[in-house]
Design goal:
Elements lengths: L2 E5 L2 E4 L4 E8 L7 E7 L6 E6 L6 E3 L7 E6 L4 E6 L8 E8 L3 H4 L14 E2 L3 E6 L1
Parallel strand pairs: 2-11
Antiparallel strand pairs: 1-3, 3-8, 4-5, 4-9, 5-6, 7-8, 9-10, 9-11
């Protein structure tokens, strides 16, 4: 059974940076496209970023493009989300997710649309809080 465990969340002031990590266990990470989904209180799930199975393709939401960078180390079974220039509106629980379908992630790139797709695997989430 594939398990995803996130770490790296915390509380920071606006303009600062955080790096989230997601360790993939119980499966071969290169079999899955990997991404990050976030959810703020009272709001729907929002796509943040994703990477293809080999990491060569990445997709971002417009709201984080040029500030966040997703990367993956398949040899180490880890996925990262480097978050720079954080804003209060980035405050949310961030979930690491995995799925065999890359289209399930690329579909959500660009302008905001609530995430309805049920990805194969989810982590428990890590809280990111950005104060102004």
């Amino acid at each position: 059974q594939v398990q995803l465990v996130e770490s790296g969340g915390g509380s920071v002031q606006a303009g600062n940076s955080l790096r989230l990590s997601c360790v993939v266990s119980g499966g071969i990470s290169s079999n899955y496209a990997m991404g990050w989904i976030r959810q703020a209180p009272g709001k729907e799930r929002e796509f943040v970023a994703a990477a293809s199975k080999d990491g060569d393709s990445t997709w971002y939401a417009d709201s984080v493009k040029d500030r966040f960078t997703i990367s993956r180390e398949n040899w180490n079974s880890v996925v990262y989300l480097q978050m720079n220039s954080l804003k209060p509106e980035d405050t949310a629980v961030y979930y690491c997710v995995g799925d065999r379908s890359e289209i399930a992630f690329s579909h959500y790139r660009g302008a905001y649309q609530p995430v309805k797709y049920q990805y194969d695997y989810w982590g428990r989430g890590t809280q990111v809080t950005v104060s102004s």
